Here is the input.
Amino acid sequence: VQLVESGGDLVQPGGSLRLSCVASGFTFSSYDMSWHRQVRGKERELVAAISSAGGTTNYADSVKGRFTISRDNAKNTVYLQMNNLKSEDTAVYYCYARRGARNELWGQGTQVTVSS
Here is the structure.
């Protein structure tokens, strides 16, 4: 049972990245998925979330209009398309799966650095 993120990189301000999170070992299509990020010394924050069937999405105000969360249940994968990246988007990005109150799982994280 795991979530594996990829796609983190060093990118210049204004650039784009797409993060991927591949799930295995559980029924991916039954879980709501989300992306969170954390800067060292600060609390982890929600970036974007998507419902199990993909019909509902939510975004932090700081990323609305720039980031898009999506999922492909046939591939057990959730994505985060990040456009017009800013230096304040620099963080470790984590994938999170949740179903109900007890079933949850975190990925190991992928580093995104926005710098010129």
